[in-house]
Predict the structure.
Amino acid sequence: MKKQTVCIVIGLLCLLSVRGQRLSSTEVENPISPSLGILVGTAGGGLEFYQPFGNQFGIQAGFSLMPFDTQIIGTYGQQETRSQVRARLHNVHILFDWAPFYKASGFFRHLIINAGGGYFMQAKGYIQTTLNESYFYGDIEVPYYLIGEVNTRINWNETIAPYLGLALTDIWIDNRFGLDFGLGGYYLSAPSVQLTGTKLLEYNQANGPIIERNIRNYRFLPQLQLGVNYRFKLKY
Amino acid sequence: MFYMLTGLLALAGIQSCENPLKDVNILVSSEILKYTTLLHVSDTEGEPLSNLSVTIKGRDAAYIYNLEGRKQFKLDGGLLNLGIHPEHEPTPGNPIVFQVELSGSGYLTQVIPVTIVDQQFSSINAISVMDLDAAPAGVTVYTPTVALVNNAIAKTLILTTPLSNASEQSVQITLPVGTQFLDENGNILTGTELTASIINADTDKEGALSIFPGGSLATSNIYLAESSNAYSGVFNPAAFTNIEFFVGGVPVRRFSQPIEIAQQLDPGFHNVNTDAPIALGDQLTIFSYFTHEARWDYEQEATVEADGDALVSTFSTDHLTWFLSGNFLQACEQPATIQLEASWFDSSVSYPLTIEAVVAGKVAAAITVSINADNRIVKFNYLPTQGVTIRVRDNRGAILGEQAVNATCGGTTILSLNDPATVNDPTVTLQLYVRCPGQSEVISVLPTFYLYYKEHNSSDDYAFLGVVTDGFLSTRLLTVETVVYDFKAVWGNNIKIVGGHRVQEDNSGTVGIEPGDIIGTKAGATNLAILSEKCSEL
């Protein structure tokens, strides 16, 4: 699935490059237009404001909201469990853009390198785990409401996370709208895990360090984004 | 450069997507049964009994399980652990009520009524079952044989129990001429011989009272005169007798005509009706008890008469069973709450105390509990509000406090305790951890278990040390370094004995198979099997 995603992304890039080559201007001007964009991607969706400086620099600022919910069913220990996973990663960010090939014609003109940082107002995950099957103690079928749950809270510090990435920005759709594509990532603080259990699942604290070990690489938040920007001035 | 960066970013993204639950092992606590009770079954000499059959009966029997959640009940080392189904726990005003029948060849069958009330999470019941060949002092077992003519008594016959085995009270049974014997269906039994088993007990001897039906003078399922409702309360017996007759091996239930029973009374009996020593002309109440139904029935009133120097209670009956002459004190419907107060209580140090309810000089009920500052409330069932004194003893039998029970039904009696002799002894802490085979982490999912102790190689019985909760127990009953102890741990249906150990002030150990762990040297393979089995259940 992940390989397919990578292939699709690369294929899309190729398509965009063809489109970019055909429609790009040959005039020496900043490929970044003053504009407002809507972006959707792996790190959530948000709004982005673009402002060029000179011929090859720009700044972009915006926010991104990522609510992510899923369910994991699996056997961890002797019992099949059902885990509701909720992640909330919301940030405001500011990035500096550099268009190294602004003099080039075609696709490479739109390639920019972004660097900056994001402040994560919310960066946390929550896993609520319960048994997914009847639990028998000897001959006794223990009712669901007596079993309880394991609640795992994952927190990243509310600090500024650096960002580095590449983007194809403001690719011509028409004289008002441009297409944006970005690939990069935030480097987050090390996550901490708090695990509590209730009722019969109370004594599961030993799983806290295991989950912390599993997610210790959850520091890199990859961002693959697609978006459309609205230019404040018509571009011909 | 672009492709290199793209590849790096994709790789980093994929790498970070480890399943957060990988290697997680969700543990389900085995403490499903929050309400448990432990029956400590011994013969009248205190020897643990294991060769008895156990039957759970009564209203809430369906909700009673062993501590492994099974419907299998077996005595092991004299211990029987019972738990209540988690969906049928007691609530205020709705206790769980059942009976435990203990029977075996050569033993006097006992049916113990058990009531577990709201918040009474654990309790210990000491039960004596009499070996018919080893009656305690003050109990006479008399087994005469009588010839029958035409299935009947040929001429009026008087059976009198001898004053043997240190007994001071006897019973006299008069079978009139022509008496025939009926089975439970009312059929006349045929045979040439009547065999009898008559057990008579002195009521002023604590050992003899241990054979009292139900194991306690405070009891339930009592039907009073002209009442169809069962009551509970305390008996104050002046005499009690069990009579069993057999014709042709078939138990006799009734007679073709009434027989007469004259019970010799304890001369020191305190009649609670007159609040004075028993005297000629006093009225006593006669109750009968049918063992298999654990049911007491009012029979009649009897006047105290003289028989030579002795006082007797004489009455007629047409059926056989246990008979009691004495007083009955009806209980209030709410359990009596006893709150213990002491300056030496500590939230972490447990202390086994025996709390007795004393009525007319007799121990009507006794409970041994593991007390600490957080757990110092004891509830007694079946107690009346008048005439009851609560007495607290430490593990050496010393009385630490004594007070009349609160006269309000369901009220709380606050009892201040004196210092026990061990109050300034060092605290010994026992902490147990468990490491499952193949695991690096110790687990904290430990079941609650009972811990007993005795001095190594002592012929004494194991004494109750306390309840080990989450693997932890702190006590002042053990002597550090100088004394060698044997310990007995009772965990569900498992009993483990660890012999020959000295203790330090702080004792901790991990049961497991890693270097430094404890697995035991005497039964290491068995211990490992138990450990593996239990770990597989986690």
